[in-house]
Automatic annotation (TrEMBL):
Residues 1-24 form the signal peptide. This is Lipoprotein. It is found in: Membrane. One of its GO terms (cellular component) is membrane. It is a lipid-anchor. Pfam families: Lipoprotein_9 (PF03180). Keywords: Lipoprotein, Membrane, Palmitate, Signal. Gene3D superfamilies: Periplasmic binding protein-like II (3.40.190.10). Belongs to the nlpA lipoprotein family. It comes from Undibacterium nitidum.
Length: 276
């Protein structure tokens, strides 16, 4: 009788024991999963960079990478924050801008991990519908950072609006203009402000990320636009001391994947072009 009673008690306690074992096992698995997750913090401009990163975030999560996205609206602080090791890397700039950034900040810490997309640079006007309508002495606004001001001048030269000493010099400045038949005046401003002052000038050359944020369609709303062969591919960049991290390699692979190519093509419809 005592044996049966003890046996019943043992059997009654079995579910609780199994639940305890399951809890311990689950806890260990959770800890193991947490240990397997590699956090990667990347700086990005809001559009399209942060949007693309948001798209790949769940894909990376399945690969054990916790992608954190820090959004910046200027072109300097993301690079500074990476140099100072507050962030792991950035995704917002192209090679000419990176070259100028390294010169101005006297360092060579950042390295390119992958080319991702091209944002064709374009010119906009709220006053004129055709390029031929631009009057003598028209005011043209361009970005004031060296790489994008040079990019603007090259694009204007390609349209026959001016002539440069070297039509292939991506670092061209206003001093390199040798012919300006319509006596255009140039206003150099911070790139992010250009959409806001568009109505105050005759023509503005605007980076596509800022144009999209301002609800401008580079394909439909611009007077002219770069072609897809632009050398200004936007880059995923890391510091030299963390470029070989597996998490970075996973992020680069996903950003150059068929899924991302399809996302870019369907979402931006020519305003952003895959560079891979």
């Amino acid at each position: 009788m005592s044996f049966n009673l003890n046996r019943r008690r043992s059997l009654a306690a079995l579910p609780a024991l199994m639940a305890g074992i399951a809890f311990v096992c689950t806890s260990h698995l959770s800890v193991a999963h947490a240990q397997a997750t590699d956090t990667l913090t990347i700086a990005a401009s809001p559009v399209p960079h942060a949007e693309i990163l948001e798209f790949v975030k769940p894909i990376l999560a399945k690969q054990g990478v916790d992608l954190k996205i820090k959004v910046f609206t200027d072109y300097i602080q993301p690079g500074v924050q990476v140099n100072e090791k507050h962030l792991d890397g950035n995704y917002y700039l192209h090679q000419p801008f990176l070259n100028e950034f390294k010169k101005s900040h006297k360092n060579d810490l950042q390295v390119v991990i992958a080319k991702v997309h091209v944002e064709p640079f374009a010119a906009y006007s709220t006053k004129y519908k055709k390029l031929s309508d631009l009057p003598n002495g028209a005011t043209i606004a361009i970005p004031n950072d060296p790489s994008n001001s040079g990019r603007s001048l090259l694009l204007l030269a390609k349209q026959g609006l001016l002539k440069l000493k070297d039509p292939n010099n991506i670092s061209a400045t206003k001093r390199d203009i040798i012919e300006n038949p319509k006596n255009f005046k140039f206003k150099e401003l911070e790139a992010a402000t250009l959409p806001r002052i568009l109505g105050q000038v005759d023509l503005a050359l605007i980076n596509t990320n800022y144009a999209i944020e301002a609800k401008l369609n580079p394909v439909k709303d611009s007077l002219f636009i770069e072609d897809a062969n632009s050398p200004y591919a936007n880059l995923l960049v890391a510091r030299d001391d963390n470029k070989d991290r597996p998490a970075f390699k996973k992020l680069a692979a996903v950003l150059n994947s068929a899924e991302v190519k399809k996302f870019i093509q369907e979402r931006y419809r020519g305003a952003v072009v895959p560079a891979f």
